[in-house]
Amino acid sequence: IGKKAAEFIDSGDTIILDSGTTTTEIAKAIIDKRNITVITNAINIVMLLGSNPAINVILTGGEFKPPTLSLTGQKAADFFNGLHVDKLFLATAGISLKSGLTYPSLSDIAVKKAMIEAADEVYLVADSTKVGKSSLARLGALSLIHFLITDSDITEKDKEVFREHEIDFIIA
Questions:
Q1: For labelling alongside 58, which of 19, 75, 78, 146 has CA 20 to 30 A away?
Q2: pTM to 2 decimals?
Q3: DSSP 8-class letter at 11
Q4: Beta 63-65 vs 70-72: how paired, if at all?
């Protein structure tokens, strides 16, 4: 998924990379890119991309969340006020028709909403095991995203749900 998502990042782009395992794979895939700006709330992504001087890396503030090595909470969300980016690569814990996009932590919701507000295009990056799953905190409906980048194990039934919601899906 990371390599496929990297194909959508062009020279001159300003992007947001959300925290998560899939977005970390995107960071690994773009480490040799030039002339891009990456805004992230993930400390591990900053450490990965910071070694390339051709990538402008910006880290949000916020409360440290140990399991994901990310910054979260209202301070992290406030960082995105007044920002504009070309693309957001958003992670999720669960995607379902009923619950929409869901996450295990309430503190992540404000951050993810602010990321979406700042972005022209929203790419949800999630493996097919997250489709049909729900977690504690609801971000919102599937209509918040423009594209889903997932693996080839997504079912035909799930593909149809995304088509019905006018979400383009990209198979990695």
A1: 146
A2: 0.96
A3: T
A4: antiparallel
Closest listed residue to residue 42, CA positions, set 22, 94, 128, 143: 22
Residues 138-167 as b/e (b if ≥16 CB within 10 A, e otherwise) read bbeebebbbbbbbeeebeeebbebbeeeeb
Find the farthest-apart pair of alpha carbons in the chain and give their distance in angstroms, rounded. 44
Q: Which two tokens stand for residue 162?
A: 């995304």
The rounded distance, in Å, linking the Cα atoms of 77 and 80 is 6
What are phi and psi for residue 19, nearest 5 degrees?
Answer: -80, 155
Cα separation, 73 vs 145, in Å, equals 22
The order of strands in the sheet holding 85-90 is 55-59, 36-40, 14-17, 85-90, 119-125, 147-150, 168-171
The pLDDT value recorded for residue 67 is 85
The amino acid sitting at 73 is: G
Q: Where does the pLDDT of residue 114 fall: very low under 50, low under 70, confident under 90, or very high at 90 and above?
A: very high
Q: Is the pLDDT of residue 165 over 90?
A: no
